[in-house]
Amino acid sequence: MFKALLVNKTSDPKTDSAGYRCTLAELDEAQLPLAGDVTVRVEWSTINYKDGLAITGKAPVVRSFPLVPGIDFAGTVTASDHPRWKAGDRVVLNGFGVGETHWGGLSQMARVKGDWLVALPNGLSARDAMAFGTAGYTAMLCVQALQRHWDAAGVKPGQDEVLVTGASGGVGSVAVALLAALGHTVVASTGRLDESEYLKGLGASEVIDRAALSAPGKPLQKERWIGVVDSVGSHTLANACASTRYGGAVAACGLAQGMDFPASVAPFILRGVTLYGIDSVMAPLARREAAWAQLAQGLDRKKLAAITTEVTLAEAIACGEKILAGRVRGRVVVNVNA
Q1: CA nearest neighbour of 299 among 93, 89, 139
Q2: Pair 242, 219: CB distance under 8 Å
Q3: At residue 89, what are phi and psi to the nearest 5 degrees?
Q4: What is the pTM of this model?
Q5: Are strands 20-27 and 72-80 parallel, antiparallel or unpaired?
Q6: What domains are defined for the chain?
C-alpha cells in the first residue's frame, strides 16, 4: 500500500470544483497504470502551476479519472522491464502527460514508461532535483536556447541586460539565479515588488513592476534587452519582444497572463529579433539530459534553498490553491513520504 493524491469526479454538489475532488488516498500497487514498464519509489515531487490546475479542477488539465496528479518526480527504480533501467537506478521525470493523462508524481509510487525517464545526475539529490523540478528544468531550457543564440552572435555575459518576466514564480526565480550565475545583468519583472530583496538575493540587478510590460504597447519600443526569459505571454511577451535589442532573442515558455500574443512582426523583421518557443513536455532525451546536467552544476545550493519551500503530501492540496492565486514564491517541493 502507498499514499497518493487522487483526483476523481464526484456527484457531491458541495465540492469546491463542482463534481471534482482531490483527496489523500491509500492505494494498492496493483492499481498503478498498466501502461508503463518501470516502477519507481517516489521520494520527492513538486507543485507546479499545472499541478495547481489539476488539484483544484480550475482548468481541464486532468483528462481521465481517477488520476494521480503531479507532473514531475524523482526517486529510485524498484522494478523494470525497460532495457535502460534496473532496480536501484536513480531517476527524474518531467512531462510526457504525466499528471494529466497518466498517473503522476504526487504519490509514493509511480509506474511510467522508461523512455520518459532521465538518470539523476551525479551530485544531485532527489530533493534538489525537485527543488529545480519542471520549472527549473524549463528555465534551463530557456537559458540554453539563449546561450546558443548568444554564442553564435558573439554576445558576452554582462554586455547588455537580460529580462526575466514572472520572476517571483518557479521558472522566473530559477532563471534569475541561473543567468546571474553565468554573469549576465538580470532585470526581474514581477507583480510582487515586496519580493525585490528576494530577487536581488538571487542575483537580479534591478526589479521592475510587471505593470510596465503588461498593458498594450507600441510595436517597436526603446531597445533594452539582449535576451528575455518569458513565462507570462500575452502583452508582456509582446512588449518584451518590442523592446529587445537588435539581434537579441526571447525564450517564451509560459502563459500566466494569457495565451494570446498581441504583437506585430516589426521586432522580427526590423531588428532581427528571434523568438524561441520552449517546450518542456515533449523535449527529446538529449536536450533533457543536457538541461539536467547543467542544472546539477549551475546553481549555488544556498540560492536553491532560498527558492524552495517544503510541504508534505497532505499539505500539497492547499498549496494547489495558493500557486494559482500567485501566493507561492519560487519552488515548492513535496516530501511524499512525510
Answers
A1: 139
A2: yes
A3: -70, 140
A4: 0.93
A5: unpaired
A6: 2-120+303-335 (3.90.180.10), 134-277 (3.40.50.720)
Q: Could you give the CA distance from residue 188 to residue 162 in angstroms, rounded to a whole number?
A: 9
Decide: helix, strand or coil at residue 295: helix
Predicted confidence (pLDDT) per residue in 89-101, tens digit: 999 999 999 999 9
**What is the SS3 assignment for 111?**
strand
Angle between helix axes 126-153 and 285-298 (nearest 10 degrees) is: 100
Cell of 208: 521592475
Distance CA 279, CA 252 (A): 9
Helix (H/G/I), strand (E/B), else coil: 44: strand
pLDDT band, very low/low/confident/very high, at 53 (cuts 50, 70, 90): very high
Rounded to the nearest 5°, which phi and psi values hold at 100? -125, -60
User: From its phi and psi, is residue 64 left (phi > 0), alpha (psi between -120 and 50) or beta?
Assistant: beta
C-alpha cell at 189: 519583472
